[in-house]
Every structure is written in structure tokens, then in C-alpha cells.
Give the backbone structure.
Amino acid sequence: MTVLSRRAVNRATLARQLLLERAELPVPTAVHHLVGLQAQTPQTWYVGLWTRLRAFDPVAAGELLVGRDLVRLPAMRSTVHLLTAGDALAVRPLVQPVVERVTMGAFGRRLRGVDRDALVAAARALVEEEPLAAADLGRRLAERFPGHDPAALAQGARAWLPMVQVPPRGVWGRGGRALQAPLDTWLSARPDTPLDARPGTRLGPAAAATAEDLVLRYLAAFGPATVRDVQAWSGLTRLREVVDGLRPRLRVFTDADGAELVDLPDAPRPDADTPAPTRFLYDYDNLLLSHADRRRVLGDPGTVDFAAHGYAADSNLQPASVLVDGTVAATWRVTVDRDGARLAVRGFRRFTAREVADLAAEGAELLRFLHPDRRPVDVAVT
């Protein structure tokens, strides 16, 4: 059986993640290929697309949220993701058990005695009337379910009724409260919605993705991978049977530690010596969150104390990071004042002169992207 070195696995993953070379793809196509971007924060995910796409226009991308071609809602790992409208309808039902499991783990006791169907019906009636923030939704639900915690009621509604965060929140350069609306009715109001699903009606059940579909799409975006990797990304469990059923359609490798990796036969697997350009990642980039073994991009924890730099193996939040030669080698932070925009890059090791030059050049482009109206003052690499 072919053995893939960690560096070879790294290069394959970077190729799937559009991080070896910026791609010329429309934003919805890229978001679909990546099976979404984690988008807990309303703005930082734009960096994730900028670092992957050529000539990326954040204003146009934000308008896709307004036009309902893209949506932000809880999905994989019960975390908010940016998804295409089609993927939101197809993928969310598949990861529904994950959203419920996470929510019940935190709020289950406080939701005892609450009738699920009644809560969903009440929540739907409220957020179909007008999009509501979680706190407002919880207060109104508490009027109908007296004696129950408003925050728990809002979270139960979020888990059992798929809801999107509506614009202007998430639109480039704009702010807004996290107001929620039902996914199905929100997408029914798209301009290209068929006549039998006009505003005021609900979309019929979408063709939900199957677990097999999701595994294959994961491998296209994050492979090669172990079964545990797929489970870590999705939050789903018991995927061994699914992968076993797909084996006739997959190639099998082993990694440097002897673990079995599965992959799509024709997916890109560049040579391990393929150059990897400097790339800036945002704080929730799925590249750092989608494998049980994160060493393919974090490198060897024996050489860097990643926990001291804010990287937690069990967390969905990682620092804004920099890839140098394909692995995480620094964190970054932007500050803005009257003089202009500054970028501070904090390295985990000493960089070569060439690496410093690459960091400075790519960092200056990042500043121009984030703050086009401010003069890039300084890119400090330490």
C-alpha cells in the first residue's frame, strides 16, 4: 500500500483547499467546493475567500448574501457556516443530529418538559413575522412557555428549526444584529424561486445529501483523510460503515504513522516538494478545524507549543494564522489608526530572508484588501 508522507498529505490538502494557487472560480462555486466556510464571525470569512480566489470582490460576495444565494446558519459541528443556498437545504438535514446533540448537551436540562413540536411552531410563527435576535426570540417564547429559561428556549428553537442569520449582518463592511429567519421561507423569497415557492410560502423538502455524498465532498475539499477526520469535520459519528461502503470508489493509502487514509482516485495529490506560497488564514478557517489529526497543517507539536499560541485541539476557534511552506508558522493581527493600517506577524520560528520578504509582500496585499481606504503603514514580522 502506498505511503503518503505528512508533507505529501499537506500538499494534497492545500491543493483541495485552493491554497497552492489562487483559483479563478465564482464565489458560489468555490463555497460549494469547500462545502462552506466556517463563519461564526460575520466578516473574517472574507479573508478565507480572498486568500483562495483571484480577483476576489468582497462587495460582490456580500451581495450574494443579500440575494440569498449564500446563507449563514449552523451546520457542521453545530457551528455557523457560510453555505450556498442549495447546500444549506441539502446538508443541514444531514447534520441535524449534530446540531441537536450539541444544543442538548448544553441546554437539555433546561428544556425538559418543553414540547418540541410546539416550540418549533411557536418559534416559526415569531420569526416568520419578523427576523429576531436570539434574546428577543427567547423572551417571546418564554411568554408562551412560562417557567422555562428564555435562553434555552431560543437555543432549542435554533436547533430544531433551521434558521439563517439575515443581512445586513455578514455583508462586507456592514454591521447588524444577529437576526434569525427560517431557512426555508428565507430561500423561498429568492428572485429565481419557482412560482410554486413564492414569498410567503415554504419550500418543499430539498433532496437532502446522503452521508455518502458528504464523505465524497469532504474528500474533494479536505482529503486524503481518515474516518476520524471526516467525523471531526462534520460532527457526525459512526461513519466507518459509510466509508466501507464507498471503498470500491476510493483509493486507500497509509500515512507516515501507519493510519489508513482514503481518497478520491482522481483528486489532486501534488508531489511533496511542490512549493507552497505564503497564505494568510482567518481565525475560523476550516483548514485548521477539519481533521482529527491536525499535524498536516499545524506541524509537529514537539517543535512548537501550539497551545501557548492559542491553538486548542478541542476548539472550533483558532487564531488568525499564516502558512509558510504549507504549515502554520505564525499568527497575525491588524490594527488601524489615523496614520493607516498595520499588520503584525508573530512567528513561531526564525524566518529566512526570503520568507520575511514573502510575508511582507502578501501581508501588504492583505492590508490593501482589508482596508483599501487606508495606507498600508507597516508589516512587522517578529
